[in-house]
Amino acid sequence: MDPDTEVDVDMSPFLIRYKSGRVRRLISPHRVAAGADAATGVTSKDVAIIDAGAAGLAARLFVPTDVLGTSTRLPLLVFFHGGAFALHSAFSGAHSRLLNALVSASRVVAVSVEYRLAPEHPVPAAYDDAWAALIWAVAAASRAAGSGSSSPEEPWLCAHGDVARLFVAGDSAGANMAHQVALRAGRGGGGGSGLPGGARIEGIALLHPYFRGRELVPSEGTDPRSPERQLAERWWAFVCAGRYGFDHRFINPLAMPAAEWAALGCRRAMVTVAELDTMSDRGRRYVAALRGSGAWAGEEAVLYETRGEGHVFFLRKSDGRDTAKEEMIAAVASFFMASSSAEARLGRPSARSLRCDAKL
Asked: What transmembrane ranges does the database entry give (predicted)?
C-alpha cells in the first residue's frame, strides 16, 4: 500500500497523518493578504524572522496607520495564534481581524508569529519558535537606526516598538505558549541568556488558555471517559509525540509547585475565559495560583470572563455589532494600556476581576 495514502493517525475532523509522514489538514485557515485596514486604521505587512536561531520563521506585523512616518513609539506586543499546536496561522483572516482590532484599540505595535506546527514539529518546537521570535522582536525594536549592526533592520519595530512596554499574548494554544515564554524569560532563557538588553516582560495576556490536566475540573464535567476528554488526551499525546504526560507543566501549569511560579517573568498577568468553554476553570485557577503562590513577584493578576460564550468566540467574523467580542477586546486593550495601581497589586484584585472571583 502507498505510505502516502495509508492512514497512520486519523484525527478527523481536524487532520490526518499518513504513514509517509504527510499531513493533510482538514481545517485550513483562509489566508488573507497583509495591508491597510480602513475599518480599524491599522496597517500590516509580512516579514521573515531572521537571526532568531530558528530557520523558516515568519511574522505579520501590525501598526496603527497614523504612526507610520513618525517617531512615535508604542508598546510592543508579541502574539501567538491558537490552534491546538497543529492548526491555524498568523496569516489567517480570523487572526488578522483579531490583531487589527487589538492594535486599533490598544495602540500597540504587534508581531503575530507564524511558528512551526505539530505533528510535523512536535511540542516543544512551538515554544522554541516563540522564544526565538520574542528575542528577534525585542532585538529589532531595540536596534537604533543606522547602528551599524550586521543584522538587517526591521524599520517598523526599530522606529515604533518600545521594549520598555513589552507584552506577550496569545489565544488558546498561543496563550499556553505565552505562559511558557514568560517562564523562560524569568529563568534567563533556559540557558543563562535572557532577553536582549535586559528587557523585561511587562505583562502577559492569556486569551482562553489551552491548559489541561489529569484531574478533571468542574468546567470539564465529571466523566473521565467522555468523548471530549478522550480526544483531549489523545490530541496532546499526538502533538507532543508522546513525550509528555497529561500533567506535564507544558499542558498543566497548575501542577507546578507554588514556589515555581516565581519564575514567571512578567509584572502583570491577565487571563480571559468564557463561561461555556470547558477549559474555563483552568484559566480561573491559573489566576488563583498566581495570587496564592506567595512566590510570584508580579503586581497584578486580572481575570476577565465573558458570559454565555464558548472557546475563542472572539475569532468569529461579525457582520454587525458583536458586543461580547468588542467588550473583551476593550478589556484586553485596557490591560495593555493601564499602569499598575495600589488597588491592583497581587492579592488585591482589580475591579475588572471581581466579577469572576467567586468562581475561583
From this structure: none
Q: Residue for cell digits 506585523?
A: 61
| Catalytic site residue from 89, 96, 112, 172 | 172
Query: Which candidate in 160, 171, 311, 353 is catalytic?
Result: 311
User: Look-up: residue for cell 484584585?
Assistant: 349
Average pLDDT in the chain = 90
Instruction: Tell me, yes or no, if 311 is annotated catalytic.
Output: yes
Q: Report, in this order, helix, strand and coil percent for the chain, each rounded to 5.
A: 35, 20, 45
Ramachandran region, residue 315 (left: φ > 0; alpha: ψ -120 to 50; beta: rest)? alpha
DSSP-derived letter for residue 345 is S
Indicate if 2 belongs to the active site: no
Q: 322: Cβ–Cβ under 8 A, 6 or more apart, which residues?
A: 316
Strand ranges in 65-126 using DSSP code E only, listed in sequence order: 74-80, 109-114
The cell numbers describing 108, all together, are: 500597540
Contact 78, 113 (CB under 8 A): yes
For the chain, counts of helices (H) and of strands (E): 7, 12
Residue at 319: amino acid letter: D
CA 98 to chain centre: 12
DSSP secondary structure string for all residues of 269-313: EEEEEETT-TTHHHHHHHHHHHHHSS----SEEEEEEETT--TTG
Assess whether 277 carries a catalytic annotation: yes
Q: Which of 37, 128, 171, 277 is catalytic?
A: 277
Q: What is the pLDDT of residue 267?
A: 96
Express each pLDDT in 29-42 by its tens digit.
Answer: 889 999 999 999 99
